[in-house]
Amino acid sequence: MRFFKIIAAIILLLIGAYAASMYYFVDESKDFTIEKEINYPVEKVFNQFNNLQNFTRWNNFFTSSSSVDIDYYTPYEGQGSSISYTDPKNDTNGEMFLRYENPNRTLRYQLFEDNNESPTVVDVKFKAVAAEKTKITWIVHTPKLSVLRRVENFWTEDRFAENINKSMINLNNVLGNKVEKDNQMAAIKYDSLMVENEEEKLLLGINVSTSNKKDALYRNIVMNYNKIYNYTTMDLGKKEDEFGFPVMITDADNYKDKEVSYFLGIPLSKKFGLTDNNFSFRTQSPTQNYIMYYKGTYDGRIKAIQQLIQKAKKDEMRFGDIRQTFLERPVEDGDVNMKLSLSVFK
Asked: What helix, strand, coil percent values describe the chain, rounded to 5?
């Protein structure tokens, strides 16, 4: 009995010492600041923060778990918007509110985690440091913790910083595809032949061989595009702003052949494991291209392709594949809006 009394006394002393050290040497809440820069204009970046549907697509706090369920409440964008979330697998839940907004300058979030009545308050400041660069500053104030829980403040800042680092990678990927689409649409000059340098691109898609009889090729393209789109959005859970325009790669002059082989794919930012063997990744190498934008019937593209080939021959350039980038979703019995790119080299 005396032995157990001694053990109990030691435990009480340790708890007392721990509580005293937490009370006197560890703050009940924690304040810290984290700064990052991203190579996109402030108006593009800000919209990814003040629209909570956008925010949850790239913020690692939400994307890191496949079991999190999010409800969005009106207004879905700007001051007054909010969400609630629950993650049964990780046994967490909470609510987030956008309390204040100064467009393209400042936001204030309140995050209530796991039924805690005191919120984490996060002020986010945005500053344009160049036309295509934005500085983002997070100023974080954590909720007050009881004496026994104050030890958590030792790793709060590191955990928050790790989440921001992963989130910035996701945000950069989202903005990369979104801005690329916006820029391409803004740069369109139909039926004008231009020269363009194209960077390396990773495509997820399907290899196909099909008949080139009247309308058969285009119907086959529409069918396979729908397969790729559904697999990307439904099976892989990718959002529209996470991938680029669909690209079809084929021989430049096979429009004359009875049968056509092509690869049709959607640009993504990185490779990952695939659950369907019908799909594969293909890396599109950097190239110099002769390009034309074309809008009309799919068969009508042939004239534009012939112009690109004639230009290459006139300039004594060798040429490789033709890449047909669909700027609008291909639909059966509809016109196409596309960019035709002929890779050329000496």
From this structure: 35, 35, 30
pLDDT of the residue at 88: 83
d(CA 124, CA 141): 12
pLDDT over threshold 60, residue 340: yes
Assign residue 165 a region (left: φ > 0; alpha: ψ between -120 and 50; beta: otherwise): alpha
The token pair that represents 297 in the structure block:
């019937």
Strand order across the 120-130 sheet: 31-38, 133-141, 120-130, 106-113, 92-102, 82-87, 69-73
Helices (H), the chain: 2-25, 42-50, 52-58, 60-63, 153-186, 216-230, 301-314
Q: How far apart are CA 6 and CA 8, in angstroms?
A: 5
Residue 325's nearest CA partner among 252, 263, 265, 247 is 247
> pTM above 0.70?
no
Residue with tokens 């039924």: 115
